[in-house]
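Most newcomers find our protein records easier to grasp once they have seen one. Sequence and backbone structure share a record, each on its own labelled line. To make this concrete, we reproduce a full record directly below:
***
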Amino acid sequence: MGEAQELLDRQRARFAALDPELPDDVLLPKGDPLLAHLPDGTTVAGVVAHARNAPDSVQALWQPLETYELFPLVGERSGEGMDGVLRAWRQWLDARSVPGEDSGCALTWPSRDAAAARALLDHGFTPLTCMAIRRGGEPDPVTELSGTVKVRRAGPADLDTVVELALAEHDYAVLVGASVPRPRAAELKRIAARLRLNSADDPVWLAEQPDGAPLALAECGWVDTTRPPGGHRLRPGRWAYVNCLSVHERARGRGVGQRLMATAHAEFARAGAVGSFLHYNPPNPLSSVFWPRQGYRPLWTTWEVRPATALR
């Protein structure tokens, strides 16, 4: 226990030096322990958590049905330490009966740690999801749309429109990101949209043409990281969360998404948010360009191997 705590303390110190926006503490989950010894005799470790997603669950829309997630403890040695614990993870998988195609290995690590990135690439991982943040008060880019687009809060009567745009985003993310095609995707999106549209705490905005034709959707929410149980991947505060931004294909490249997010960011600021965060897919040629232009920058990257047996 003492050795693991020492590794964790040194790792926290490295994280603080890498990126001042990283939280001071991220809780470790319950799971199976891993140990690895580096060539100089140094010990590194990790915890493997196993989760099963039901085929008809919301989580299954962006995760495999069987997920193995590693929480490394490598101290300040992100490169060789990560390599060592990944080798131990491969041996851990070899000793177990791991499901086939609908499975994956994942771990989340500070985006700025290039030394760890090299080890992850060498072991077959792909950076599929990036958690990015934008601090409150940052100005939005100016888009001149000359009154051709209006933005309003969506309500229960907009359910069909919201589901259509949310499904379009999901279908595109299946091609270029972590999302997974599931038979009940439309039904699950409808259930989630209905709950969000009937909640005063989860704002949803629509961008429309003057004639009311829908152009884009922004589904948002709130996370308070000052409340228990703690261990969030964000610094303390009340954060706005951008769950989904979907711009109709016919409206892309015209500044509609930018105009929509400018409205959302202004509302976040008025409500006292310390900032906003979201998840986007680095392989996505649209979101990987769009979000940095709106002031978001990577904080954590989730690396994945699918199926789990593809871990090298």
Remarks:
- The chain has seven helices and eleven strands.
- The mean pLDDT is 93.
- The CA atoms of residues 37 and 43 lie 5 Å apart.
